[in-house]
Design goal:
Pnp Oxidase, Chain A, Flavin_Rdtase-like_dom, oxidoreductase, Rossmann fold, single chain, 408 residues, alpha+beta, 2 domains, 28% strand, NADH-dep_flavin_reductase
Length: 408
């Protein structure tokens, strides 16, 4: 076992135990309020034996993680901590989280879930919008910390800053946005959440399952946590197997897309002028050089793209390679219902194509050929003019997320 430090929201230091091989699929364990990562020790050992790399993280103000001097324990900071850790892992773990940790994980994975994680397990998670129970738990933990000031494994200031009412309201509609395989584990004797409330929550998940641990009120306690192991390993083997994800012709297209997403690319905006003399454009990352002599490049355009018909017939078009400061431009030209060019600096180039100002490079092209390519078409251009800015860094795209260069 090794102790690893991560940087959380606003630079807070977060501490974790890590066991297992770097080559094994990862599981991130997140404890509840008033606990530490030590609560997961038996589960972590079982997961390692099942071929998983396990990261057991202490929340801020708990265990070995930093107890912030400014008492910053608001929910946004806690969620920011988890998203920061997930971004630093370099892999997409299955996140296993209980009570407060579950609230944090659900909020952190409400957006960009598939980029940050490969699955989610929520244990002992209060899901009712009735905050009475959550407040009672907070009161008990606060009293316990106050009875032994300076000796508790968590910072009692957490419960002064944490607003359970705000959190439950914020999470009232979160389930439908968690685009991950998700397992909800409930103690059959739970006072935190009724079976009906748990089932309603799971019913809103895009891909959810519900299991119960018999003769348990809280599953993640020192005397009951072993009961979680079988459910957890079963879920992992079914929904996040140790083997490499595999695509074969005719199977899930999402797996194929994920495989393609492992190839990091730049981001471009392809532009042209339509028959009415108006500029059109769209974001594309299927772009590559073809030949130096003659100077050819290609872009792949979705057949159902709004600008597809214009680009298929255009005699001239431009490919604008975006730099790191043009992420808003990429989003704008990837969306719909907005006057893209009104909010973007551009000018007509020498060969009558829209050239975006401030791009990393721009290629003005004459149409050389158009080839069918399944649900896309391949637009080949002969480069007539190219300009570039050597002092800027590229906007990169990898596994569904914008990236930037890291220099050694």
């Amino acid at each position: 076992m090794s102790i690893v430090h991560y940087q959380g929201f606003a630079g807070i230091r977060l501490e974790a135990d890590v066991i297992g091989s770097d080559n094994d699929p990862a599981v991130l364990l997140l404890h509840g309020a008033g606990q530490t990562r030590a609560i997961w020790s038996n589960v972590a050992d079982a997961l390692e034996q099942a071929g998983r790399r396990v990261i057991s993280l202490d929340l801020r103000g708990h265990g070995g993680s930093e107890w912030p001097e400014d008492g910053r324990y608001d929910f946004d900071a806690l969620v920011g901590d988890l998203r920061a850790v997930l971004a630093q892992l370099g892999t997409r773990p299955v996140v296993v989280a209980s009570t407060l940790g579950g609230w944090i994980a659900a909020a952190a994975l409400e957006r960009d879930a598939a980029v940050l994680a490969s699955g989610l397990v929520l244990v002992d998670l209060p899901v009712s919008d009735d905050v009475t129970m959550a407040q009672r738990i907070g009161d008990r933990l606060r009293e316990a910390a106050n009875r032994a000031p300076g000796q508790a494994a968590w910072d009692a200031r957490l419960f002064e800053a944490f607003d359970a009412a705000t959190v439950t309201e914020r999470l009232s509609d979160v389930a439908r946005n968690i685009a991950l395989p998700t397992l909800y584990v409930r103690g059959a004797m739970s006072e935190l959440v009724s079976r009906a409330s748990a089932a309603a929550f799971v019913g809103q998940l895009p891909d959810g399952e519900l299991v119960e641990v018999e003769d348990a009120a809280l599953v993640v306690t020192e005397d009951r946590i072993d009961a979680l192991g079988a459910h957890l390993i079963d879920f992992l083997e079914r929904r996040a197997p140790r083997g490499w994800p595999e695509y074969r012709a005719g199977s899930d297209a999402r797996t194929f897309r994920d495989a393609l997403g492992c190839f990091a690319t730049g981001v471009t905006v392809v532009t042209a002028i339509d028959a009415a003399g108006q500029p059109i454009g769209l974001t594309a990352n299927s772009f590559t050089s073809v030949s130096l002599d003659p100077p050819l490049l290609l872009v792949c355009i979705a057949n159902n793209a709004g600008s597809a018909a214009v680009l298929r017939e255009a005699r001239h078009f431009a490919v604008n390679v975006l730099q790191i400061g043009q992420q808003p431009t990429s989003n704008r030209f990837a969306g719909k219902g907005e006057d893209r060019f009104a909010a973007t600096g551009w000018e007509i180039g020498e060969f009558g194509t829209p050239v975006l100002s401030g791009s990393l490079s721009s290629f003005e092209c004459a149409r050389e050929a158009v080839h069918p390519g399944g649900d896309h078409f391949i637009l080949v251009g002969r480069v007539l003019k190219a300009i570039f800015e050597p002092r800027r860094d590229p906007l990169l795209y990898f596994r569904g997320k914008y990236r930037k260069l890291h220099f050694a």
